[in-house]
Design a protein that fits this description.
- The chain is of the alpha+beta class.
- It is built from 21 helices and 17 strands.
- A 7-stranded mixed β-sheet has the order 7-8-11-10-9-12-13, sandwiched between helices. A 6-stranded antiparallel β-sheet has the order 1-2-6-5-4-3. Strands 14-15-16-17 form a 4-stranded antiparallel β-sheet, with helices on one face.
- Strand 16 and strand 17 form a beta hairpin.
- The longest helix is centred in the last third of the chain and has 26 residues.
- The radius of gyration is 31 Å and the shape is globular.
- The protein starts with 34 loop residues before the first strand and ends in a 26-residue tail after the last helix.
- The N terminus is likely disordered.
Length: 695
């Protein structure tokens, strides 16, 4: 298609043009200042530079033209590898893509009567035929070229060869300006939008019938006053075509799992923000984020919290799964990116995390989260990348210990004491010189628990000091986000680890397929229900009733709390009023309950309710992290200096310390406080709330 390339006699001027990056999510030619150059088929082409990462936003914006709604297809595409040209031209490209309006360039408007233009027509079938329907072709000449510049790979050159949607006579050929198109589908875009396609596909994946989809669509169209665009003309045939796509789809694209994954990546490049194939020196890494997930991350992640849920499925899946989560207005977790990697998540995180943040800030340069929640203390890159405060999540540590204690230790009293001791070790509240001494004492006290001790030595002893140092340097996440993360974790297990899928677990292509179809559709539907109120009967109640929300429905009067004895509390069952559950270790992240849900290692509503009530009444012992902080202050108070000169200096230091702490709080609230390095041993702060309080 060389004839379509613009000829520019003054190529050296291209690099002097400013790179334009409109602030809106999607933008069109109207948002860009164009520079006209000589040449081109229509008496001069318009050119402009934009970031290459925003090419899709430009194509979407151009397709949403109000006067001439369109759909631009790729007419021609070529690529060159880097280093293939020794002396590239200024407009030399790494990638060349020609986009053409789907209403052209052929014109079949009068072909039935033999009056049509046959000079540029192509056969209906066979070699040289164009995909799509012939009746859509109306001779539209609107087209533009995108070049990813060879000398500046991050920049795209747009060459708009014909900006108007006209035929060869110069008359409008579709849209509201074309009189012949009025009252026909040619007034609108030729195909349904990607947003509607995603919507219908998600409904089909979660099991909504064709009839219900069409009925729902008609209700939505009527609610905004009748049809206004192509999406409003969704037909049963459109839905059947998408049903056929789902029915014929398979996760196995090629017999080899590795080749199948690479084939999927090539077909879904816009959903892949990072890919690195497995090699001798480099691990396999695949980062997935759909357009919908990108929008959720932009919306809920800005001034909100992002959590890393890493190493899921490390025992069953070929490679573990890392999920990045945001929290919606109902405090439920939504996956906004998935990363599958053959290495430990902390080892390869520097390769993909920066690229993901750049992808987000390309859409919104002002985007910044309030906090990032990590579940691996070795992951120390988040602050540098996200520029926000970093919090440590102990949920899966507590869960692992609790589940192992239940399986490997039969005595309930011993279980509670061991869990309490774990918390004291992590927060260094035992009066021992080092963590090693505290661990040795723990192993001597409970030496008779041989089965659990073997598990502890194998699984946790090599990493326990890493966790202790993490708690020293980072504030700990409160129970509210823990409940949301737990709910996501359990739902992921339910969806992925069905016995029906056991034979597929060793394949990465199956995991990719399930994530991007069934699981993605489930979360899309839940958000759609929340935003629109439709399909309430399909709502998964567990999605909006995690342990935190179930705790909100327990009355304060159902909590039996002796303020003089805070060793335990009781909560009356909400289903059987004659039963009460007992909670031990109040005021600790490692408190436990004797209900069946807690015995599975989960965070139960009774534990959360007691924590809420204790905090509101300010009657429980402070959390372990706060105990460390207050113990250090008490030690200073109990040992004042005898020398009056030293005492004067001490008073001055304390006054300055108060001012410094207040300044640190202000920095933390603004997200500018950097975590301390692991070698320091600071005093602890109390658990940091990730969400504003619910009223």
């Amino acid at each position: 298609m060389k004839g379509h390339e613009a000829k520019m006699p003054r190529m050296e001027d291209i690099l002097n043009l400013p790179v334009q990056d409109p602030p809106c999510a999607e933008f069109s030619a109207a948002h860009i200042n164009w520079k006209k150059v000589e040449g081109g088929r229509q008496g001069g082409d318009d050119i402009a530079l934009i970031p290459f990462s925003r090419v899709d936003d430009f194509v979407k914006g151009e397709s949403a033209n109000e006067e001439c709604p369109a759909s631009f297809r790729i007419e021609s595409r070529r690529k060159r590898p880097e280093g293939s040209i020794s002396k590239p031209r200024v407009d030399g490209y790494l990638e060349y893509t020609l986009y053409w309006c789907s209403y052209g360039p052929e014109d079949y408007r009068d072909s039935e009567s033999g009056l049509g233009d046959s000079s540029n027509s192509k056969p209906a079938t066979g070699k040289g035929s164009r995909p799509g329907r012939r009746h859509m072709m109306r001779g539209c000449l609107c087209h533009f070229t995108i070049k990813r510049l060879y000398t500046r790979p991050l920049v795209a050159l747009i060459i708009y060869n014909q900006r108007k949607h006209v035929d060869k006579t110069g008359a409008p050929c579709h849209g509201i300006l074309d009189r012949d198109a009025v009252g026909t589908r040619a007034m609108y875009a030729p195909r349904i939008s990607e947003e509607l396609r995603q919507k219908v596909m998600s409904m089909l994946y979660v099991g909504i019938s064709l009839d219900n989809i069409i009925q729902h669509h008609m209700e939505v169209v009527q609610s905004h006053g009748g049809p206004h665009n192509r999406d409003d003309f969704l037909t049963r045939n459109d839905v059947r075509n998408m049903e056929r796509v789902i029915r014929n789809s398979s996760h196995v694209l090629l017999d080899s799992d590795e080749c199948s994954v690479q084939a999927w990546v090539q077909r879904h490049q816009k959903h892949v923000f990072f890919f690195q194939a497995n090699s001798g020196s480099e691990p396999f890494i695949l980062g997935i984020q759909t357009d919908w997930q990108l929008q959720q991350m932009l919306h809920h992640g800005h001034n909100g919290s992002i959590a890393s849920h890493s190493t899921f499925g490390s025992k069953k899946l070929k490679y573990p799964l890392c999920s990045l989560l945001v929290f919606d207005s109902s405090r439920n977790a939504i996956p906004v990116a998935w990363v599958i990697t053959s290495s430990a998540i902390g080892q390869g995180i520097h390769k993909w995390m920066g690229i993901l943040v750049e992808r987000i800030r390309t859409k919104d340069p002002s985007w910044r989260p309030n906090a990032f929640l990590i579940d691996d203390p070795s992951n120390n890159l988040c602050y540098q990348v996200f520029q926000c405060r970093v919090l440590l999540c102990l949920w899966h540590v507590r869960r692992a210990w609790m589940r192992s204690l239940v399986k490997k230790c039969c005595n309930l009293d011993v279980q509670r004491e061991m869990l309490k001791y774990f918390g004291q070790i992590l927060y260094c509240t035992k009066n021992r010189p080092t963590v090693v001494d505290a661990i040795q004492e723990f192993m001597q006290i409970f030496v008779d628990q041989c089965t659990f001790m073997n598990y502890f030595r194998r699984r946790w002893l090599p990493r326990i000091e890493l966790w202790v140092n993490g708690i020293k340097t980072l504030p700990v996440v409160s129970q509210e986000p823990n409940a949301a993360i737990e709910s996501y974790h359990l739902r992921l297990k339910e969806k992925l680890f069905k016995d029906l899928y056991a034979s597929h677990w060793p394949r990465v292509d199956w995991l990719i397929h399930i994530l991007t179809t069934e699981i993605h559709s489930f979360y899309w539907l839940e958000q759609y229900i929340i935003e629109t109120g439709y399909f309430e009967n399909l709502k998964d109640m567990s999605f909006t009733t995690n342990s935190w929300y179930r705790a909100l429905h327990i009355a304060d009067a159902d909590v039996l709390l002796d303020e003089q004895n805070l060793q335990l509390a009781k909560v009356i069952s909400q289903t059987d009023r004659t039963m009460a559950y007992t909670i031990w270790n109040l005021g600790s992240e490692f408190c436990c309950c004797d209900c069946s849900w807690s015995r599975l290692g989960n965070l139960c509503k009774h534990v959360i309710k007691v924590a809420m009530l204790c905090k509101s009444k300010q009657v429980s012992r402070p959390l372990l992290s706060a105990q460390v902080y207050r113990q250090a202050l008490l030690t200073l108070l109990q040992n004042p200096p005898d020398d009056p000169v030293v005492l004067d200096h001490a008073i001055l230091h304390v006054t300055r310390l108060q001012q410094d702490i207040k300044g640190l709080e202000e920095l933390s609230n603004s997200g500018l406080l950097q975590p301390l390095p692991p070698e320091t041993n600071p005093q602890m702060v109390d658990n940091v709330p990730v969400f504003p309080r619910l009223h």
